[in-house]
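Hey, quick one: can you model this chain's 3D structure?
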Amino acid sequence: MNGTPVGDAVELRVHGVSGVTAERILDHPVVTRVAGDAHAGFFRPRPGSGDAGGATPGVVVEAYRWGYLTAGAAVRTASMLLLLPFMLGNLAIWLRPPGRDRWQLLGVLCRLLAGTLTVTFVLAAVGVTLDLVGWQCVPYPGCRASRPYLAWLHAVPSGPRLALLSVVPLLALRVVWWIGVRSARAFEGFGSSSAQPPATDPGDRLGDAGFWDDERTIGWLRQIHVALGAATLDVSLVAGTSRGATPGHLVQLGAAVGLLVCCVVLLCLPAPASAARTRQFLRALWGATVAVSVLCLGSAALTGSKPSGSGKLPGYEGAAAGVVATQGVLLVLLAVVTYTRHRARSDDRPFLRGLGTPIMAAAAVSVGAAFTATLVYRTADALDHGHIPDPIRPDPSSLGPLEPPVAYWWAALAGLAALLIGAVATSATLLLSRRRRRRLAERIVERDYPTVTAESAHRLCQVRETIARSRVTEELGPVLIAFLVIASLGLATVALDVIGIGPTQLAARLSGQGGVLAVLAAYVTDAGVWVISLLVICLAILGFRSYRSPQTRRVVAILWDLGTFWPRTVHPFAPPCYAARSVPELAKRVTGLAAHGPVVLSGHSHGSVLAAATILQLPPSVLSRVSLLTYGSPLRRTYARLYPAYLGPQALCGLGDRIGWRWRNLWRDTDPVGGPIFPSAVGAASPCAAAEAAEVDIRLRDPRSLTVDPLDTVPPPVERHWPYHTQAAYQLAVRKLTDSSR
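Sure thing. Here's the predicted structure for all 742 residues.
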């Protein structure tokens, strides 16, 4: 098999995030691909060119390079920045507390919240095209002056004009759908490799057959979200072109609202188990979507002129406020449900007090609001020739109102407050924890370097500071809790959104029309608009640079490596799950190699998570010849805390039992990412009943010495997160694991 004689052991290395090359994984300049393709492949040193770096005698070293699944295509990496709110929304469900999701309540709430993100996206497009351009700008000569691309629209009656501009939101919806489908093509054809029968409720455990196969769910949700976005546009169009409560208008409005309600109900239901039944539902939904959209567009196109008036597009203000209110209610329900489930379990203390799901959901809502407000405000700013109007400082009458919805003013103000309070909370947390982290680092260096010469004192201080800084990850919990509190406080503005009172209007009512407080509120709100706009523009610049620069593309891909590891079970427009290919592909390769000899699955950093997921998907017949080596691993330090329902302590114990505890984990105190897997290795109570758990973790002293070796010119470096394979403990672990698997 690809040059591997029967009986030879294979060390299969899996890299971490940031899309490193096969040459770096193997620590060898000349490599050749032995399996896979350009997106993800298996590599070995070219025959006759020597062994891989850190190779153990008698063990063939092979590398699995999967990083190009997220960092390989420039268009895919740049376009994924547009999908950031959807990615965060999809990630929220995976941070849920342990235990079964009774009545699928968390799943329903997360899917409904994901639906509001799609509605927010469509409403942003509606706000730019139908509201700002078609309703507020075109009727006013000052706004369309020197803009021939808008002037011709003035000759078009308002109904056909809005119908024509409705094509833009439909195209935007089509673009995000296309990005998700196109970027998933590299993952097609990789189903579950497990020999177990498909689970009736896949998604509860990483070892379930079909866990990584999300195509059926995505196909179901994609059509629902497309229909949801189209229904949102239909309702906006009907509201903007209606001439009163005529029978025709009521029929259109009823059809559009009915389609919207139907989509909401379908989001509360799981995808049908039968593929044929799924196709029937999707055909019916697609037909209803096309029929309602054609009805609304056709009716608008046949409607004559209707005065635009002096306000916003009818119904648009209420729609924007209604979405914000719905998101607020869903966030409160998520927080209550997750915290209640956390309180019901007294056997563990999950990170973030079990509030990971609402925190990530709040992040998705916040980023979506920032994107939406930036798009609407920057468009309004361009259309009104630089003016930033509000009720205290209106535009000249010749320019028109050009007023974005009140909800976006509150979003801008909340964004500014979140940044300021978040920065203060982060600084305070780091300062307050600094002494504790330094005391811990002091104990570690005293144990590792009991005798220190005067020449090594400065070097010792550097090591102590490195260890103290590596503990910052554990201190970020309060900052994330503070973010959730800030997002919750923003719910107090929901009532003001619904009745149409913005920050400046509220300040004017409190201090008198035109008072100093009102003007100050106007300028503070303007500052919030610009701050969130700058953040979004920076993301756009980052996306552009990732398109042109491979180095920047790898940096951007780090975020996507962490955020797209889990299947898409909530939002279909999220970037595709690369593990849907890498885990089944690894399982297939390991199964084939294990038929010829022992296999050590060696995972660095995030690669250790892929390796663990792979072992959970292996058929039982090959487990006796497979062992696991992890190093710089965030399995316990990060994943067990953030994802306790899937990679918690009990799941890690089950992983060790599955491979007969042929598992070694190398870690350093200076590593800011990796750490021990089982607390018993560092003197705490072990969650596992098996005594072998205490033998898994192997701590490496870093640096190996404070003094300069007689044969060297500089002291040993502080290696932190990389490399591990250059130390003798690595080769010793590989040797023991291969011997125990023969």
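One thing worth noting: The longest helix spans residues 406-448.
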